[in-house]
């Protein structure tokens, strides 16, 4: 079940490969995510040492959050992947100029997972071509719909 999508990622990047990663979260964050108080539009994945971190994801605290903690809406959260996957991603980012972008947050087996994409940036003309293709498909679909009637 999808919690939050990053539609901007598909507009700004060519997604080459996808990986599913776990996220290290605090209890109040899980409750806020279940209540759909999360936004990953401006988020990105950074590499520190030999680990991956989700930076810029905004999780709004619920008003019923505990009084003995101070919720931080935008904090760096560690991503959990297998060592081989991390090494592969770091190699591609460092050597080949790829970017790591969070694509969506979803539940899997009661846990929150983050799907990250290995992406190449689009140039402005690529973005225009993508938009043109999407508009063309929309027009064809509308024509097919009216033709059936």
TrEMBL record:
Residues 127-140 have a biased composition (Basic and acidic residues). Keywords: Cytoplasm, RNA-binding. This is SsrA-binding protein. The keyword Transmembrane does not apply. It comes from Duganella rivi. Required for rescue of stalled ribosomes mediated by trans-translation. Binds to transfer-messenger RNA (tmRNA), required for stable association of tmRNA with ribosomes. tmRNA and SmpB together mimic tRNA shape, replacing the anticodon stem-loop with SmpB. tmRNA is encoded by the ssrA gene; the 2 termini fold to resemble tRNA(Ala) and it encodes a 'tag peptide', a short internal open reading frame. During trans-translation Ala-aminoacylated tmRNA acts like a tRNA, entering the A-site of stalled ribosomes, displacing the stalled mRNA. The gene is smpB. GO terms for molecular function: RNA binding. CDD domains: SmpB (cd09294).
């Amino acid at each position: 079940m999808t919690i939050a999508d990053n539609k901007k990622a598909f507009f700004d990047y060519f997604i080459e490969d996808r990986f599913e990663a776990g996220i290290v979260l605090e209890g109040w964050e899980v409750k806020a995510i279940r209540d759909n108080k999360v936004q990953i539009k401006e988020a990105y994945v950074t590499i520190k040492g030999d680990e991956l971190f989700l930076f810029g994801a905004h999780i709004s605290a619920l008003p019923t959050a505990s009084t003995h903690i101070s919720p931080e809406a935008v904090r760096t959260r560690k991503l959990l992947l297998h060592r081989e996957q991390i090494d592969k991603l770091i190699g591609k980012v460092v050597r080949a100029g790829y970017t790591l972008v969070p694509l969506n947050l979803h539940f899997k087996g009661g846990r929150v997972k983050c799907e990250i994409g290995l992406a190449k940036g689009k140039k402005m003309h690529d973005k225009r071509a993508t938009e043109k293709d999407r508009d063309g498909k929309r027009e064809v679909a509308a024509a097919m719909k009216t033709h059936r009637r």
